[in-house]
Amino acid sequence: MDKENAPCPMPHAQCPMPHAQCPMPNAQCPIIKTMMFIDPHIHMCSRTTYDYLVMREYGIVAVIEPAFWLGQPRTNSGSFKDYFSSLVGWERFRASQFGIQHYCTIGLNPKEANNEALATEVMELLPLYACKEGVVAIGEIGYDDMTEAEDKYFCQQLALAKELDMLVLIHTPHRNKKAGASKSMDRCIEYGLDPSQVVIDHNNEETVEEVLERGFWAAFTIYPQTKMGNARMVEVVRKYGQDRIIVDSSADWGISDPLAVPKTAQLMLDRGIPEEHVRAVCYENALAAYSQTGQMKASDWLNPQSVDQRQMFNGNSVLRGQEPGIKSVSDFVLIE
Q: Of 60, 77, 207, 258, which residue is 20 to 30 A from 265 by alpha carbon distance?
């Protein structure tokens, strides 16, 4: 059996299609065969290399990895320095070895802004990393508990973004989200940022209308049981259309899904959202927003460099004893 007509290697538990509708030779798979996706908010440092393999097979061609809170509070600026270096170095290399273009944002997350002694030192690091290759924005920044310290360092980072003429990625708080989103946008305007250069993330039905009316990009995180479900996302796109709406996964060390973007795209198609709208919210809008930096362009993945998994980054390859040339999850059917 040739590859085009081989059974889909995807486990049914991971497949976005209902089991009964799954004919699934690769050539007919609507996701794998016909669409490209960008996941513009995913924390790949918390994911495995196998995730890159599966993501590429589902059509994800590019990711943006915002600097974030790692779960374990950091105690010195050196750990931030190593983390930022990984975002612009190792992660960028690791993704490239599986045909995915990797970009990142650099910032002090709001939760750790509350450690003011540490936050002051981290602020000194940001200009050193913000202008490196592959950095597309200052972020993710904003509010967690909306404390005075969070506001102080949020404003300092907005001023830095203005000074460097960079985009901003805003994290809206999980609690008191509507007030946090409104205040974030107020601060952006106050610091002279154009709404077209600011992505407001983690939106829901409560915040989307104001974000769009004020001219900002409205991103939605499809994250199980917490931020947003993909069935709700379908109805948001049905109501508000595709203009300036972006879908992402924010997949991290929690119970999350690195395939949330393609799965949401499939659900939208199944439920009657026009294909051009799906393509806009799962690919084109993220490209339009972040390509303003000049750091990200479609030719990066449409005309990619050849992949050689024997390549090294600081003396290390992505291979952990495997042979080079791993291209498909089907290569892992037999575990030896």
A: 207
Question: What pTM value is reported for the model?
Answer: 0.89
8-state DSSP, 320: S
For 87-115, write each residue's pLDDT tens digit: 999 999 999 999 999 999 999 999 999 99
Q: Retrieve residue 120's tokens.
A: 């002051």
Strand pairing report for 60-66 and 101-106 = parallel
Q: Cα(244)–Cα(334) distance, rounded to whole angstroms?
A: 43
Strand locations in the chain, DSSP E?
A: 37-39, 60-66, 101-106, 135-142, 168-171, 198-201, 217-221, 245-248
Tokens of 177: 């989200």
d(CA 315, CA 223): 35
Phi/psi at 98 (5° precision): -125, 20
- Which residues neighbour 250 within 8 Å (Cβ) at sequence distance 6 or greater? 41, 42, 43, 201, 202, 221, 222, 223, 227, 256
- 234 in helix, strand or coil? helix
Three-class DSSP category at 236: helix
Place of tokens 């802004």: 113
The pair of structure tokens assigned to 30 is 């609507």
Instruction: Give the bridge partners for 106, in sequence order.
Output: 138
- Return the CA Rg of the chain: 20
